[in-house]
């Protein structure tokens, strides 16, 4: 999909526009999304894939989206719809956009790919190599994607855009299993992508991959989730699910980068190729060692030229986020902290 300055305008006729706006500001604060301009009846939000402006008017809420591609604009439209729906059930149906994909088409950020191979790597991961059309955005606009896996015993049914512009996902026996992964490698020229999925033993993704055969169809949605950090000093920490992203960040780090990588795994992790100034600390979960303790012992580098990156189970990520913001004075511009999976409660 070509890169272009895409602008989309939306209108939501509602009497609850001020309340909706307050809800959006709260959501942004909770998820550390940058609000660049907050005035009583107007806000501008800056995301990794574009900006969204909201203004309360006589008719309700007006929305202006600006993104670098139609697919990114559509993802932002979807986020707006999800927020509006979360704030007021049924309200998203009243959203009107001046530009939306035609009903019945696949959403612009969705593609169908095919499995080329699935192999075991390092005893920890299934390595999925797939091919799909138009992978350029996946090499450019975000580090992550959603895999949408169809049930094994049925012909796949893919999402389509509904009459209201929102995607309609197959449900019941045709429901797709959707999970977020990091794009480990991508080559738009050959149309190939690699994803490493941790074999944690419980998930439907690993079960699907264990049975996958070359030619099997699967859905790809995205990309999203921001880009690789760049700073002279990097602190990269996480569990197995973070390893594909950590490996990719290290591969892209320029010579001269210094810092620390902390990886917690149940079994010996794969060897990592590190820039000269970066040290690796391996935390063995089975020996009772713990990521947070090692993290607390780690120097975070000089303010202004550092980036602290952490991804692991959701509650652990929340703990580290609090620590960084409250005790270490590291704000979101110098850090990325994400819950990559949720333990059963
Ligand atoms: C931005 C982002 C990038 C990610 N990148 C990767 C990646 O490159 N590789 C990767 O392997 N994962 C990655 N993850 C994590 C992955 O999305 C989750 O582990 C997800 O739950 C996997 O889906 P599933 O189908 O295996 O299991 P689900 O259907 O989501 O969950 C099934 C069960 O498995 C449990 N479970 C899920 N993950 C784990 C785990 N790690 N350890 C133990 N139990 C678990 C759940 O608690 C649940 O009980 C990423 C997540 C995010 C948000």
UniProtKB/TrEMBL annotation:
Pfam families per record: FAD_binding_9 (PF08021), SIP (PF04954)
PROSITE patterns per record: FAD_FR (PS51384)
Any one GO molecular-function label of the UniProt entry: oxidoreductase activity
InterPro entries referenced in this protein's UniProt entry, alphabetically: FAD-bd_FR_type, FNR_nucleotide-bd, Riboflavin_synthase-like_b-brl, SIP_FAD-bd, SIP_fam, SIP_rossman_dom
Domain FAD-binding FR-type: 108-230
Family: Belongs to the SIP oxidoreductase family.
Protein name per Swiss-Prot or TrEMBL: Vibriobactin utilization protein ViuB
Naturally occurring in which organism (per UniProt): Jannaschia seosinensis
Classification lineage: Bacteria, Pseudomonadati, Pseudomonadota, Alphaproteobacteria, Rhodobacterales
């Amino acid at each position: 999909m070509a890169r272009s300055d895409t602008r989309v305008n939306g209108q939501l006729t509602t009497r609850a526009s001020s309340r909706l706006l307050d809800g959006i500001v709260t959501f942004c604060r909770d998820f550390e999304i940058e609000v660049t301009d907050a005035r009583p009846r107007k806000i501008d939000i800056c995301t990794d894939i574009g900006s969204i402006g909201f203004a309360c008017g006589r008719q309700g809420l007006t929305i202006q989206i600006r993104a670098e591609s139609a697919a990114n604009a559509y993802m932002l439209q979807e986020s707006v719809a999800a927020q509006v729906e979360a704030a007021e059930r049924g309200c998203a149906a009243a959203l009107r956009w001046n530009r939306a994909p035609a009903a019945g088409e696949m959403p612009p950020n969705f593609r169908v790919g095919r499995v080329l191979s699935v192999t075991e790597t390092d005893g920890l991961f299934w390595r999925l190599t797939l091919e799909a059309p138009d992978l350029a955005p996946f090499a450019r606009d975000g580090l992550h994607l959603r895999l949408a896996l169809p049930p094994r015993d049925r012909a796949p049914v893919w999402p389509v855009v509904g009459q209201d512009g929102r995607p309609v996902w197959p449900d019941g026996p045709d429901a797709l299993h959707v999970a977020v992964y990091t794009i480990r490698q991508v080559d738009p020229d050959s149309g190939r992508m690699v994803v490493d999925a941790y074999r944690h033993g419980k998930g439907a993704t690993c079960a699907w991959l264990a049975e996958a055969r070359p030619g099997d169809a699967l859905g790809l949605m995205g990309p999203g989730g921001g880009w690789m950090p760049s700073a002279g000093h990097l602190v990269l920490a996480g569990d197995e699910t973070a390893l594909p992203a950590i490996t990719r960040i290290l591969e892209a780090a320029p010579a001269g980068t210094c810092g620390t990588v902390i990886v917690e795994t149940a079994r010996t992790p794969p060897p990592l190729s590190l820039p000269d100034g970066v040290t690796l600390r391996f935390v063995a979960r089975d020996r009772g060692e713990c990521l947070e303790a090692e993290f607390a012992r780690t120097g975070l580098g000089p303010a202004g030229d550092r980036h602290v990156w952490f991804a692991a189970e959701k509650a652990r990520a929340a703990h580290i986020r609090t620590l960084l913001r409250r005790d270490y004075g590291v704000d979101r511009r110098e850090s990325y902290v994400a819950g990559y999976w949720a333990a059963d409660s």
